[in-house]
Amino acid sequence: MALTVAIVGRPNVGKSTLFNRLIGKRLAIVDDTPGVTRDRRYGEASLGGLSFTVIDTAGFEDASDDSLEARMREQTEAAIAEADVSLLVFDARAGVTPLDEHFARLLRKSKKPVILIANKAEGHAGSAAALEGFRLGLGHPLPLSAEHGEGLGDLYDALEPIAADKVAQGRLDAAAARDAQLEEVTPLDLDEDAGDDENLPEPVAPKHLQLAIVGRPNVGKSTLVNALLGEDRLLTGPEAGITRDSIAIDWQWGEQAIRLIDTAGLRRHARITEKLEKLSGADTRRAIQYAHVVVLVLDANDMLEKQDLTIARQVIDEGRALVIAANKWDSIEDKNEALKKLRERIDWSLPQVKGIPVVTLSGMTGRGLDKLMGAVLGIYRTWNKRVGTARLNRWLADVVAQHPPPLVSGRRIKLRYATQIKTRPPTFALFAAKADELPESYHRYLVKSLREVFDLPGTPVRLILRRTDNPFDTERD
């Protein structure tokens, strides 16, 4: 059984820096601004020979009302309840503060192991200041520098016995469960070969569908993710721009394993002035680059603004499959007219990708979630579609017969043959003499025909022209 470790502490003590250090990636956004992290984020960490799940949490605020800080505190408390051990991080240079003491009291009430981390303790001065952590009554503070990677050996020594206890307890629980199961089985039910599983097939790890939820700020992305998961996993509220990091959550829809990624809202570059928002935007664009399917969430009361189209074009340019979700649909009075206008605007503004799936839904009530996931899985299959070379060349012969390529310098361009060179998105290579002289209009004609004949709606289709270099070709330049 894997160990789960929560990194907790007041804002701006270096929790996300430690999280990134343990997982070996710059996954969490790090900035000098206090309170950058708001949702809890999971990662697979490795320290020496020890592997464990680590949770990055929001900076703890002593608030219990309906404010954003109070909702962030609930996220942190959920991480503490889930974890086997908490790392309480304080700033060795700033010393112990009243909020650190308040947090220490809360962790003692959890009755789970706590390791006290004195971060930013690089150098002799920092190590000496770390001793102030004894005031918290949580044992010996470990001097550590997450930014420079110092003190990780001491952290390993502190985590290793807790991990060993976790493994031992897991074995005891498994043995007890097997004993209980055997007690329920009568002797007549026992089979001498029941324990022989050498001939059983090895389990196949499911492939994750990377599903990114993107859109402008405050269109309901996190609310939609919570509705899909069936729990308040992500921080939501009326405030715009609550989500700052891209949060990845492993999830299952039917038999399909999905990695669901909630992202920060994207605004126009001209409106972005703060460094933190630039970092959040870069994180969202990186999520789009690595996604398989992207759901662009629109506010049904303010649909398909210029920024929505900018995001959609970015998704298409990256070659990702796109689904458009009109959220807050329950607030629309004339739904038929609104849907008609939306589809017309999409066809007019995104002509390079015909047939983009459009789903109307409400993340608040859960209406339309089945249709959304049906559209996601359908476009995912299209995005992975492969067409045989024989079918492609029959198509090429037909399309050339219907509309031959134009003349160039008095000679007609010969289209030799076509083949699919990759999927995700469907990408085809067309070999031709004078390929670089084929007009753009004819290229668009071929792509449109490919989309229609081979049923590739809503997904980017790429057609790469390659020149044939046949020494016996009399039309060769």
Could you characterize the architecture of this molecule?
The protein has helices at 15-23, 68-82, 98-110, 123-130, 152-183, 221-229, 275-290, 306-317, 335-349, 369-383, 389-402, 440-453; strands at 3-8, 41-47, 50-56, 85-91, 114-119, 142-143, 209-215, 247-253, 256-262, 293-299, 321-327, 358-360, 407-408, 411-412, 415-422, 427-432, 462-467. It starts with a strand and ends in a 10-residue tail after the last strand. The chain has a six-stranded mixed beta sheet, with helices on both faces. Strands 8-9-7-10-11-12 form a six-stranded mixed beta sheet, sandwiched between helices. The protein has a three-stranded mixed beta sheet with strand order 15-16-17. The model is unreliable at 179-206 (pLDDT under 50). It folds into three domains: 3-163, 3-Layer(aba) Sandwich (Rossmann fold), CATH 3.40.50.300; 209-383, 3-Layer(aba) Sandwich (Rossmann fold); 389-467, 2-Layer Sandwich (GMP Synthetase, Chain A, domain 3). Helices cover 36% and strands 20% of the residues. With 477 residues, it is an alpha/beta fold. The protein is built from twelve helices and 17 strands. Belongs to the TRAFAC class TrmE-Era-EngA-EngB-Septin-like GTPase superfamily. EngA (Der) GTPase family. Keywords: GTP-binding, Nucleotide-binding, Repeat, Ribosome biogenesis. GTPase that plays an essential role in the late steps of ribosome biogenesis. Associates with the 50S ribosomal subunit. It comes from Dongia mobilis.
